[in-house]
Amino acid sequence: MLQPTKNYESREASPVDTIEIEQRIEQEKRERGFKRSIWVSMFAIMVYGTSLSILLPTLWPYIDKLGLNHTDLGKAQIVNSVGLIFGCLFLGFIAIRVSYKAAFLISSVFGFIGYFFYAIILSLGLSPLNSLYLMYISRLFAGLATSYSLVMAYISAVVPEQTRTGRIAITQAILSFSYVLGPAIEAILTLINFSIGPIIFNDCTLAGYLCAILYLILIIFVFFFFSTLVPPCEDIKHNVYSKVPPKKILLMVCFGITYFCLFCGLAAIDLIGTPITEKYYLFNTLSNSILWGSLGIISLIGPISIRLLTNRISDTILLLGWFCLTTISFASLLDFTKPLPLWVYITCNGVISASFPACMSLINAIFSKILADRPKATVMGILQMTAGAGRLITSLWAGQIFSLPSGFGPTIIYAISGILQVISAILILIFQQWTFVATNRQFKF
């Protein structure tokens, strides 16, 4: 005899279940938006680094083609540093008060304007003085376009602390790779030289046009793919700055000083690297592109080492070790009264090239952990302002000292840079215990 079939009624979801499902869907949507935005920010950091490294080998020959002197280049770099300082603070303010998307868009527009102006200077046929003024404008906008602080702040806001140092190291590795990509592209551009009417296309102008195109692509990516969602710790309507303990303020000042010293050394390498290879080793633009591209490959060692060691060794100890290596390398470059062997010069620059991105990653990671859940965009921007200040001050004195006779210029520049790295290492050593406590939430600080 057949048994009657049981009729099971489907259970309707309760209001509580419905709310949980909606919250889960909303959370997944937010996470997808943040992940997509992180990828866009990675592309932004690649555009930023590639643009810097493409222009680096072209600045000195471009100045010569415009009928300017090397002192004018120092002034242009000062203007660029001023733009960097104000750009960091302005973009950080926009990120918090409006949105990160708006800040990235403004940064990208600044970059497009700056590099497009750089490209057209030679084609306009202006007098040297007017060319210099347009060079100032282009370098100012290029400085205002700094997206490094924005990327660091955004990653610090959306990535958990447990994986943040590794993520920042990956970002720094992408930046280091872009330093390889830029000189490689510039090496190809040195083979091109033609004109269409009054518009001149050579290695210098094509570098500017290419950078402008990259920023135009970035504008499109940010507009269509960057999320408008606000990271929780950046929502100033619900999360205002709580009272910062005095020890944390002192720590932030300490790492601001180390960042300043680090970028003084980096600016010195950028400023005198090309003239040293041209003067003492007879390099041309192609040779310099190959050299800086090779150093860019070596610079990947720093971020990769952090990615591998961050769970085994504390951020502070890693930072101290890299600063010590940087100091030793600067000390090895001290005697330029006679040209150093080329292999010594390249080896020391290789160690310095690996050290700088490693130190930048670690300082940004430590700084963001000290801030904890407080909004980060403006304060991380202030940290990058110290980098701009380091570049600015180094541009003021290094260009003048380099021209001293008998090789004393490079010797003095490397000596001052090395002393600044020693100061950084001492500060890190002194505040090592405080940093460990401040960046670990299980301790009350």
What features would you describe in this structure?
The protein has helices spanning 15-55, 59-65, 70-97, 100-124, 128-144, 148-158, 161-189, 203-225, 246-280, 285-299, 301-309, 315-332, 342-371, 377-402, 408-430, 432-438, and strands at 194-196, 199-201. The chain is mainly α and 445 residues long. Strands 1-2 form a two-stranded antiparallel ribbon. Helix 4 (100-124) runs antiparallel to helix 5 (128-144), helix 7 packs antiparallel against helix 10 and helix 11 crosses helix 13. The N and C termini lie far apart (77 Å). Residues 5-10 and 235-241 have low confidence and may be disordered.
Low-confidence stretches: 5-10, 235-241
Outline: globular
Query: How many strands, which pairing sense, and closed or not: the largest β-sheet?
Result: 2 strands, antiparallel
Coarse structural class? mainly alpha
| pLDDT averaged residue by residue | 81
- Whole-Å distance between the termini? 77 Å
- Give the oligomeric state: single chain
List the helices and strands and how they pair.
Elements: H1 15-55, H2 59-65, H3 70-97, H4 100-124, H5 128-144, H6 148-158, H7 161-189, E1 194-196, E2 199-201, H8 203-225, H9 246-280, H10 285-299, H11 301-309, H12 315-332, H13 342-371, H14 377-402, H15 408-430, H16 432-438
Antiparallel strand pairs: 1-2
